[in-house]
Design goal:
The complex is a heterodimer of chains A (523) and B (174). By secondary structure, chain A is an all-alpha fold. Chain A has 20 helices and 2 strands. Chain B is mainly α. Chain B folds into 2 domains: 72 residues; 89 residues, no CATH class. The chains are: A mainly alpha (523), B mainly alpha (174).
Chain lengths: 523, 174
């Protein structure tokens, strides 16, 4: 157990650049996380081409540091402007903003920062403890189990999200479909290349994710009409006292545990963890009525959970090679350009890389505490940067980053097409995360299914009835049922609300009422 | 109602597209050795499932549209009116940005990184409203220089140099 850690420590001290990279990554992550619309995924995606010049461990440390920093960064704008920088910080605004409005913005930021660091360290410890045994278990997995895991990944992210299940599944299947372009992995025949030589190797993953997330985000922002919020520059972050911290210890422990567990589940990410932790904090509180007015626990609970979920979400990526969230799917892209295939064999054969990541993420959380404390006021100023400069600069970074991968304009064209597709999918409310998970898991799912069927002599029953496969496929089915049920409940709630709204109240002063919302059913 | 029509059109497009791609897969070359899991096996499976989900969406969008039409006929639907001048402005802004990005893509290859980037940044800052003219003018060359420096000197990554005279100019710059 300790030997790989010693190896990783020796590596990191032998390469002091790793510390600089982690510091840079945390700052970059906080900056991207704090600006609404940029988000951590964009921060990770834009850095992938730059990891090309580093060795794989340094590259992964860079991406991991951004992931850690960005998860906290979202809380800065949530607290100061009531505008979450990233979806996982939405819950933080519920109590953070009222506290800031009371003139305690510094205190709110301090609570968010310390809770983020505690949650992040907890999540990394869970990752360190659980990933190795899970990888050992995964060594016994065959192609049918991997196919079932991939199916679970796609159905879970489509089913558990809040939107339309059919749209989520369609986006996931579209990702799987795009992944079929290129040469067949078994027969070597061409598929959907339409005579284009550039498509023989398939749709390159890194240009696709940069287009889908970064470029599409710029177009999305251009299509919105909102102003840059007025920034409160006079903020001095104050860490909570030990007494205040101890008062929230149960909330921190519960939220960190919830975050790590939920983060490890495929498809359920930091946002869900934050909301569940917040509602649990309300449920267990002696003063639930105070939540929403600016209480410390209301900030600590979601922040500890969403940062703990970062470590949790790395478990399936490193141990099984299956990304459970959009950000880890993007990180998988960063690994593949170095020729690294995450999974149980990576844990066995490249312990130095894996344990360096564990240590690096731990360090990133500590550094976040150190840098976040004096720098929060400056990160608040980033929000004042006009999008007229930031947006075009991101387009330039997308273009140059993708071009630098292979000096190939075709990759840039792929990125542009994917950017336009991502923008349209967002406008039409198709979840882009499902598409990316489909794109990443497509080759794994296909190869596993076809190899698995060969192993069991083409018997579908023998394929699906292996114990672990059956459990995973049933879980996939359950996530679909859950998704349909959730959609049905939302539909019913909407109809009830419309029914209530369409009952005209007694007219007063001759005024009429009867606002019928779009989609209302006639009586 | 416009949203329901768009939803129906998009779902229909995906539905027809998945059927078309299924038929293309049906024409893939076959390999007798892998006849049960041939080249077309996985694409057909994926696009058949996609036809199923998008078919479901077509039905659900058509039902929504029918309900909205009924509400509209009964005079219960809100009057959405014509698109506002602001939404037209935003639409034009997105189109302008998309055209600029495409122009940048071609300029990137023919003019080289430096010239194409400065031009793109200057034009793009005019597309998204921002009043500070001095910052607008200074930002483009400064950002381009900084990025060129990072790519070529720090990271040793290639940047496009353009063709002809632009290639020679880029040699002077980086």
């Amino acid at each position: 157990m300790l030997e790989p850690f010693v190896e990783a420590i020796a590596y990191m001290f032998g390469n002091p650049i790793t510390f600089l990279l982690i510091i840079f990554a945390v700052i970059w992550g906080i900056a991207f996380g704090s600006v609404p619309g940029l988000t951590g995924i964009v921060g990770v995606a834009l850095l992938i081409p730059f990891t090309f010049v580093f060795d794989p461990t340094e590259g992964l440390l860079l991406l991991g540091g951004v992931y850690v920093g960005s998860t906290f960064g979202g809380s800065i704008s949530a607290i100061l402007f009531n505008t979450p920088g990233s979806p996982e910080a939405a819950c933080t605004a519920l109590d953070g903003y009222p506290m800031a409005k009371r003139g305690q913005a510094g205190k709110a930021l301090g609570i968010a920062l310390s809770a983020s660091a505690i949650g992040g360290i907890f999540g990394t410890v869970v990752l360190t403890l659980l990933a190795p045994p899970m990888a050992r278990l995964a060594l016994s997995f065959g192609p049918p189990e991997y196919f079932a895991l991939a199916v679970l990944g796609i159905t879970a992210i489509s089913g558990i999200g809040g939107g339309s299940l059919l749209k989520g599944l369609t986006a996931g299947l579209l990702g799987l479909g795009v992944a079929t372009v290129g040469l067949d992995p078994i027969t070597g025949m061409e598929r959907y290349t339409f005579g284009n030589l550039g498509l023989l190797t398939g749709v390159s993953f890194v240009p696709a994710i940069i287009g889908m997330f970064a470029l599409a985000e710029v177009l999305q922002r251009v299509s919105e009409s909102h102003r840059t919020p007025e920034a409160t520059a006079k903020v001095s972050t104050q860490l909570p006292t030990l007494r205040e911290l101890l008062a929230t210890r149960i909330t921190l422990l519960r939220s960190s545990t919830v975050g790590a567990i939920i983060g490890a589940l495929p498809g359920v990410g930091a946002t869900t963890a934050a909301f569940i932790s917040y509602s649990e904090a309300v449920r267990w509180s002696k003063h639930p009525e105070a939540f929403g007015t600016g209480v410390a626990e209301g900030i600590a609970a979601p922040e500890a959970a969403n940062n703990s979920a970062v470590g949790g979400s790395m478990i399936p990526l490193l141990a099984l090679g299956i990304p459970g969230s959009a950000t880890t799917a993007v990180m998988l892209g960063g690994l593949t350009i170095h020729g690294i295939i995450p999974g149980p064999l990576l844990m066995q054969q490249n312990t130095q890389l894996v344990y360096s990541v564990f240590l690096g993420m731990m360090l990133a959380n500590v550094l976040m505490l150190l840098f976040g404390l004096p720098a929060a006021r400056y990160f608040a100023l980033i929000l004042r940067a006009p999008y007229a400069l930031v947006g075009p600069a991101i387009v330039v970074l997308c273009m140059t980053g993708v071009y630098a991968l292979n000096s190939n304009p075709f990759d840039v064209a792929v990125m542009l097409i994917m950017g336009a597709t991502g923008f349209l999918l967002r406008r039409l409310q198709y979840p882009v995360a499902s598409f990316i998970i489909g794109l990443v898991l497509g080759p794994i799912a296909e190869l596993s299914l076809r190899q698995g069927l060969m192993i069991v002599d083409y018997s579908y029953w023998a394929f699906a009835s292996r114990p672990i496969t059956a459990v995973l496929l049933l879980a996939a089915l359950a996530s679909l049922v859950y998704g349909f049920y959730g959609q049905y409940r939302r539909h019913r709630a909407r109809r009830t609300a419309v029914g209530v709204m369409s009952i005209p109240p007694a007219p007063t002063n001759g005024a009429t009422s009867g606002g019928v919302r779009e989609g209302a059913q006639p009586p | 109602m416009g949203k329901a029509i768009v939803n129906l059109a998009v779902a229909g497009f995906f539905f027809l597209g998945s059927i078309w791609l299924w038929y293309i897969a049906d024409g893939f070359p076959t390999s007798p050795r892998y006849s049960q899991i041939d080249t077309d096996y996985w694409p057909k499976l994926v696009f058949a499932l996609m036809a199923l989900t998008t078919g479901g969406q077509v039905v659900s969008s058509a039902l929504s549209l029918r309900a909205e039409l009924k509400a509209w006929n009964a005079g219960l639907a809100p009057d959405t009116g014509m698109p506002s001048a602001q939404s037209m402005f935003i639409f034009l802004r997105v189109i302008a940005m998309a055209v600029l990005i495409m122009a940048y893509y071609f300029g990137f290859q023919y003019l080289g990184f430096s010239i194409a980037t400065v031009l793109f940044l200057w034009l793009a800052t005019f597309t998204v409203s921002f009043r500070n003219a001095a910052v607008k003018i200074l930002f483009a060359p400064l950002f381009t220089m900084a990025l060129a420096l990072i790519f070529t000197q720090v990271l040793a990554l290639p940047l496009p140099r353009g063709v002809g005279v632009f290639y020679d100019i880029s040699l002077l710059l980086y």
